[in-house]
Automatic annotation (TrEMBL):
Protein name as catalogued: SGNH/GDSL hydrolase family protein
Residue ranges constituting the SGNH hydrolase-type esterase domain according to the UniProt record: 225-416
Keywords: Hydrolase
Single GO molecular function: hydrolase activity
Pfam families from the UniProt entry: Lipase_GDSL_2
Hydrolase in keyword set: yes
Highest classification ranks of the organism: Bacteria, Bacillati, Actinomycetota, Actinomycetes, Kitasatosporales
Superkingdom per UniProt: Bacteria
Amino acid sequence: MVSKRGAFGLLAALLVILLGVALAIGTGRGERVDIAAPAPAAPEVVPAAQGEWVATWSAAPSGAEPGTRDGLPDQTIRNVVRTSVGGNGVRIELSNRYGSRPVTFTRVTVALSSALGGAAAHEGTMHRVTFGDGASVTVPAGGSVLSDAAPLELPHAADLLVSVYTPESSGPVTYHRMAQQPTYLARGDQTSRLSGSGFAHASDVWRYLTGVQVFTSQADGAVVVLGDSLTDGITSTPGANHRWTDFLAARLRGDAEAPHLAVLNQGISGNRLLRDGAPDRLFNGASGLARLRTDVLPQPGARSLVVQLGINDILLQPRATDARVIVHGLNRLAEEARAEGLRVLGGTLAPFGGHPGWTPELEQIRQQVNHQIRTAGIFDAVVDFDRALRDPAAPHRLLPGFDSSDGLHPNDHGFRAMAEAVDLAELVDHTAEAQAL
């Protein structure tokens, strides 16, 4: 029986061939804004027809940005994001999921950052992004839009600038609340500006941008990570790309025997498996169970899912005080993802004994959930974050060298340990691959 994802995959493959031919003969819709020497370290250009569209970066929208009731009129927003795999064509996704009115983008560009995530663009890499019949696009409240292909040669692990200009007032800005990466603002339409001058204001959020896709022959698909603040990486070094998913992407790129996968971070701080964010904490997002449909399954090229959720169901009010309820939710999530053709890995719940909310009773629930994750066959494979992060002398606590100081969130060293806990070979279904051969 062919899964829904498999049926869509056949259609997508036909579309990819047509798009690939368009890119190969230079008729992609991206318009070059300035022409100069190509950026250094760009990958070797391959015939586009050999590739496919794969998501290389993502961020889950987490709500409506406070203080933006009328949007950000007459301002250019320059988002900075780190890609996981490269290729020779780029598409972007813009979201108005939490807007109350349509938002119009009259000009959008993509470019490579010239210096470690700063606002300045590298000469020769600036491309205008179009949407069907023109450069302007209006996204309805609650909606999203995918751009046409821009012929940008995108390296692995590149800092990509995505600049959007909104001339008029709109509803609240859909954003990702804790980016650990600066996003820049400038007055007027500065989308094609190469220098960083004028982009004086920086904030730690991503605005409107929720996905970057790359046309590539250098990846076999993507692994999506559905998680909370530990996946969001809120205690990692700002601007350093030291979330555990960044370290995982580096491992996949650096290991010749590893599967060639992009890594998509769909973490939202405070996110729960079973409940949506409370009315006073809507920025914690919808439940993980709901986000499977909105934030995981639509990702092009998704082959596997890592679930890192459950600790906030124990820690935040109203609490899930029965481990069986959490385990049931994890099992449901895994079954629904597998039904769509994904391989599903489950992460054990990390220690939080140094956190003010910790109690022996909550620790018992955590241990019960972890026992089921390890032994009940809920997932196709287990990523034991608990074992990777705990202090052997006090297993309810993080190892001191991994603790960011709040007892709950790891530091950069802890995030690296989380990435190293992943068995890279388990990210793909080798049995299915062997049967296909």
